[in-house]
Amino acid sequence: MAGVAGGNDFQWCFSQVKGAIDEDVAEADIISTVEFNNSGEFLATGDKGGRVVIFQHEQECKNRPHLRGEYNVYSTFQSHEPEFDYLKSLEIEEKINKIRWLPQQNSAHFLLSTNDKTIKLWKISERDKRAEGYNLKDEDGRLRDPFRITSLRVPVLMPMDLMVEASPRRVFANAHTYHINSISVNSDHQTYLSADDLRINLWHLEITDRSFNIVDIKPANMEELTEVITAAECQPNQCNVFVYSSSKGTIRLCDMRAAALCDRHTKFFEEPEDPSSRSFFSEIISSISDVKFSHSGRYMMTRDYLSVKVWDLNMENRPVETYQVHEYLRSKLCSLYENDCIFDKFECCWNGSDSAIMTGSYNNFFRMFDRNTRKDITLEASRESSKPRGTLKPRKVSTGGKRKKDEISVDSLDFNKKILHTAWHPKENVIAVAATNNLYIFQDKIN
Amino acid sequence: MEYKVEAHRIMSISLGKIYNSRVQRGGIKLHKNLLVSLVLRSARQVYLRDYYGGICLSAQQAREWCEGEYMDSEQDKLVPGSKESMPESDGQSEVAVDKQEPSNVVESHAALDVESEASGEQDHAEDGVLDSGCSELKTPEENPEASPTFEVPNGVTTISSNCISGPPPSNPEQATETPNDCQTDGSESVEENSLERTVPQTCTNRKRSADDSELTDSLPKRTKVMSPPLISKNDEKRAETEEMDTSNVSSLITIFGSSFSGLLSSEDGAQPDSEADQDSDSGQICCDQMLKNLNPWSTAIVAF
């Protein structure tokens, strides 16, 4: 596979793994989203317990230049708590569905995190100085008796241990009746969109009590519901363009200049269904679980249950590239339906140069596709196959017939070990792969 | 045969999922429930199609058996026909059968002809059907005749009436909408309210797939040599199980065919709570009924 630097094949090496080693995984620890910030210096993860953990890329060691710095915990905070909607008698899960970083504008970092109903803007800032010598209170914070104060002094800033604070700056609530599945920051750095099953809202980052509804596909009669919105994203270069995908396998591109309510799409992307592969589960596996624009903004990628498709925004009738992720599962759809795995929502991501794409699969496997050479590789994120700075060995699933040595048969795959969330550093060949409650970081070996 | 069991199994699994989704943490997930309801509908189409097709075939087979020497050549043709209509277990080609061009319309009318004759209508049925060009168009005419179908003694008529009338004739727009279904494939209908339309559609598709061209030729001969007592005895037994299933099916239709809102009653709060409760109860009842019906029903079919 061609590397970002050009010419060399990727050689992915294990770098780090974060998270407990226990076999017993607490549900709250399951990672539900992974996202690098725009520079790649920070890596944020959200989990089902509503917590956000941010890792920072340490500076590279000068005496070991071949080793890139590691990611260490920078900040941990509770972003969302479980809530109860008394009106509908519904519990609102605290699981973090998505995290999106804002572009950095000052020394603080901002990110948006969302659960099913509420989006929050968090400010993460460093504090390494502390004021000492207050007049009205003691060093331990207790108020001083005013009658005891005989002189006035100016507080002095003293250095202290670095403290990273996360504070919620905005709470965008009560705008979504259905479950929020996506948020996306606009390229104007002032607005962002949030999408639930039936509606998409446009927010201004400064205004929390109002949002514009820009897409509404709720039918007048809910009995006529045929499709829902599954993902939405803003185009990275044009602040008036966004796309949203549906459960029917279609993508609609909308231009906000055309109308205030973008129910009528500007472009409609759909690949005709192959009638020979029709089954009970055709609708489920065609449902798109993720849509991501390329960094260039010219292409977009969609993930459905069995494949990843790359679309050229200028061609609506079919994708330009289709990659099969785990076609061997097509004959197992019935059992995957029974154990609910067919509803798993896999994400996908681009590398910095848009030359490669990555997505997850089962058995802690994840797949990478090189768009130029058309080569693909399957790797595993597991402690057994992760030796410190050891190169990852390509894995292969045998699809029937004779199983070769080192291959794993389809029936031996562990469907509880699923990699739904992956992220690729925007500039370097560093990837973060979430395997249930563990976060694996792999780096490309620099020769 | 195993295909129908598979469809039945998928239906009960789907019902279970929908029922369980109500008690899941975080509320009802609209996307997942929508997908499950689509699977439920597809499975149901296959299930009903196989069932009614099985009845058609079995009725034909029963007639052929009592005709004696007529049958030796016919049965040889019939068996491959029945195999074609019971494709492989993984479901994909079975649904592909659905997508045949409506060029076999003549055969389907012939099959419909056979069923109608069992209830005593002879020549006019064929003309009526051919004139209409599509069996669904008989829906408005036959609905009043169908009546509560359980009361009709002849099981085949029960089935054919059910097949054609499908849901309770509550929707006056159905008569106008069904002609469109002639042109579309039943398995592609995704609209919630088209669940009702697809019942007649699946019946027609099933007949298309069940019949060979040879059967069309031999049917005029066969119809004259019916043996009513034998047929009614077989069909009565089927009618009993059919009654249980039809009530089940119609309640399924009521809940899932026409009402997605029941699932969402707690989502948008617009629907009254009683509907939600009723829905969950009937969801449970349907689940139980479906599961109970599996055994006596397949026994009855296997007997034929």
Automatic annotation (TrEMBL), chain A:
SMART domains: WD40. GO terms for cellular component: protein phosphatase type 2A complex. Pfam families: WD40. Keywords: Repeat, WD repeat. It comes from the Eukaryota. One of its GO terms (molecular function) is protein phosphatase regulator activity. Residues 381-404 are annotated as: Disordered. PP2A consists of a common heterodimeric core enzyme, composed of a 36 kDa catalytic subunit (subunit C) and a 65 kDa constant regulatory subunit (PR65 or subunit A), that associates with a variety of regulatory subunits. Belongs to the phosphatase 2A regulatory subunit B family. This is Serine/threonine-protein phosphatase 2A 55 kDa regulatory subunit B. It comes from Hucho hucho (huchen).
Automatic annotation (TrEMBL), chain B:
It comes from the Eukaryota. InterPro entries: IER. Coiled coil: none annotated. Residues 76-283 are annotated as: Disordered. Residues 155-164, 172-187 have a biased composition (Polar residues). Pfam families: IER (PF05760). Residues 256-266 have a biased composition (Low complexity). Belongs to the IER family. This is Immediate early response 5. It comes from Hucho hucho. The lineage of its organism: Eukaryota, Metazoa, Chordata, Craniata, Vertebrata.
